[in-house]
Amino acid sequence: MNTAEGKWMIQGVRAVIGDAEVEDAAVVIANGKIAEILVGGERPQADGATVIDGGGGWLLPGFIDMHVHGGFGSDFMDASKEAYDAITSFHAAHGTTRMLATTVTAPPEAIEAVLGASAAYRRNPMPFASLEGVHLEGPFISELWPGAQNPGYISPPRLDWVQAWNDAYPGTIKQLTLAPEKEGAADVIAYLAANGIVAAAGHTDALYAQVEAAVEAGLSQAVHTFNAMRALHHREPGTVGAVLGDNRIHAELIADGHHVHPAAIRLLVQAKPRDRVILITDAMSAAGLGDGRYDLGGLDVDVAAGVARLREGGSLAGSTLTMIDAVRYVLEHTSLGVAEVSRMASANPARQLGLRDVTGTIAVGLAADLVLADASFSGVSHTWVQGRLVHHAKQD
């Protein structure tokens, strides 16, 4: 579905307005933006608007997924409009309104193909979730922590590659994941920070002091915290210790019950300020499909009971997670409220991507990126992207 931008009135909802949970709210969308917000049962004049009765469901800011590889049978590495439409349509149906096309460790020409395809995709009207740019996950990662990345394509940090890619596709690279302990990483991190690109630690064997040095150079994020990184030890806090203890680092979290134990999730949200945790899916092409055999960056993946693992070695290989499921999982396994979890799915990634004045919260004048979920967060009935209804679950 791709309904043209129009005027909408969403009423009868609980909503996260700013940082507050509000009962019986109404929100008006006009000209792609949030035009009016009323609470306490007040109703604005419809004035020709299409009225949606939320039936007591939750209206949330649209989810922003900074780390997603694919979905519904397609991968961003496919580097085609058809694949990108399939991915953005699938995730929009589960509440994602903006995302980063995430690569895997691959040959330079394959990475360049994704950059080119993403830049071209963004130049035209996007019918579903908005593609904000590219997250380069690798190839500058640790051979000791490849996870589901192809070790044959791991490279030392190459500032010349990053500069060339950024010059060829300006504004397209939004995040780059690397192992900060590798020689040459500090120069890459400084370049990224100076150019408004999120520098993130991931697939890394970095010691605590090495992470801290990287933060001083401009590193500001940790990729899928706890996964594929040096663990916490009481005499060497490692990468995880630095992420938990340094509030300059934003911590990505895959909340699917497989990547991170609920107790570790609770530890993370107790250790980090609420505005420093970012929910991601790390979803691969199998998301939205059944169990079976799949491919991730040229590696064979088996999905069983919704869990994706490399056929060789058994490492977790991304996920089949959606953002609405991540939100529900954190709500079910922590004491956090809806507004706190909503921030992790929307406002926090918006700020990291320099979009806090555009989207990420429900406020008058911001983009109408909105998700209407049922009361139990088990599904999404409507998704709006900049005022366009891009998903509507038909009722039987």
UniProtKB/TrEMBL annotation:
Residues that span the membrane, as ranges: none
Molecular function per GO: N-acetylglucosamine-6-phosphate deacetylase activity
Enzyme Commission no: 3.5.1.25
Keyword Metal-binding: yes
Protein name (Swiss-Prot/TrEMBL): N-acetylglucosamine-6-phosphate deacetylase
Lineage of the organism: Bacteria, Bacillati, Bacillota, Bacilli, Bacillales
Tagged with keyword Metal-binding: yes
InterPro entries noted in UniProt: Amidohydro-rel (IPR006680), GlcNAc_6-P_deAcase (IPR003764), Metal-dep_hydrolase_composite (IPR011059), Metal_Hydrolase (IPR032466)
Organism: Paenibacillus glycinis
Boundaries of every Amidohydrolase-related domain copy: 59-119, 196-390
Family: Belongs to the metallo-dependent hydrolases superfamily. NagA family.
NCBIfam families reported in the protein's UniProt record: nagA (TIGR00221)
UniProt keyword terms in alphabetical order: Carbohydrate metabolism, Hydrolase, Metal-binding
Enzyme class: hydrolase
